[in-house]
Amino acid sequence: MSRTVVGIDLGTTNSLIAVLRNDRIEVIPDGEGRSLLPSVVALAQSGVQVGYPARARLNDPETVVVYSAKRLMGRGYEDVTGELPHLSYPVEEIRGLPMIPDRFRNRHLSPPEIGALVLSELRKRAELYLNEPVLDAVVTVPAYFNDAQRQATKDAGEMAGLNVLRIVNEPTAAALAYGFGSGKDGLFAVYDLGGGTFDFSLLDIRKGIFEVRATSGDTHLGGDDFDAAIVSSWLSELRAGTGFHDRPEVRDLLRKEAEKAKIALSGKDSVTVSIPALGFTTTLTRKTLNDLVEPLVQRTLEPVRKALDDAGVETRDIDGVIMVGGATRLPRIKEAVQDYFGKTLYDTVDPDLVVAEGAAVQGHILSGQRKDLLLLDVTPLSLGIETMGGVMSTLIPRNTTIPTQAKEMFTTFLDGQTRVDIHVLQGERELSRDNRSLARFSLTGIDPMTAGAARIEVTFMIDANGILDVRALDQRTGKSQGVVVHPSYGLDREDVRALVKDSYVHAKEDFETRLLIDARTEAQTVLNATRRALDRLDDDIVPKEERLLIQNQMDRLEEAMKGTDGRLVRDETTRLDKATQPLAERLMNHSVQEALGGKQVDG
Amino acid sequence: MAHSFARVDPSLCWNCRESLSESDLCTSCVKIQPIGHETDFFSILGLPVRLTIDLSELTERFHAKSRLFHPDYHRLEDGKEQDISLNNAALVNQAFKTLRDPFERALYYLDLTGPHHSPQGQKTALPPDLLMEIMELKESLEEQAESEGAAGAFQRLSGKIREAEAAVLEKMAELDGIPEGTDRALLLSFRASLGRGLEYRKYLKSIERDLKTRTTPARGQTV
Question: Over the range B86-120, which residues count as b (16 or more CB within 10 Å of their CB) and which as e?
Answer without folding.
Answer: bbbbbbbbbbbbbbeebbebbbbbbeebeeeeeee
